[in-house]
């Protein structure tokens, strides 16, 4: 089995985060900004999970942050669906 270290997970999280920043800045049509913010939240979640997995941060402190990230994504999707206008 291949062992991925902390640095690998943090690089992956940073790539997701940057990809999200670019998508949020460029894709203003068809929900590109919302998708970008979801990538940013995903990158933050991967980074926090990696830091907990390798015992850099305690589980108790990070569990609240992970819940906030998930709720932030759900809230973002809900506002995107409610605010969507019909037509081009």
Topology record:
Elements: H1 6-26, H2 32-53, H3 59-83
Main sheet? none
Order of SSEs: HHH
By DSSP (H or I, 4+ residues per run), the number of helices equals 3
Mean pLDDT: 79
Based on secondary structure, the structural category is mainly alpha
Number of domains: 1
Taken as a percent bin, the fraction of beta residues is under 5%
Measure the end-to-end span.
Answer: 49 Å
Assembly context of the chains? single chain
- Overall helicity: over 70%
Q: What spatial form do the alpha-carbon principal axes imply?
A: flat
Return Rg in Å: 15 Å
Counting DSSP E segments of at least 2 residues, the number of strands comes to: 0
Indicate the low-confidence ranges by residue numbers: none
Structural description of this entry:
This protein is mostly helical. The protein has one domain.
Concise account of the structure shown:
With 88 residues, the protein is mostly helical.
Entry keywords:
single chain; 88 residues; mainly alpha
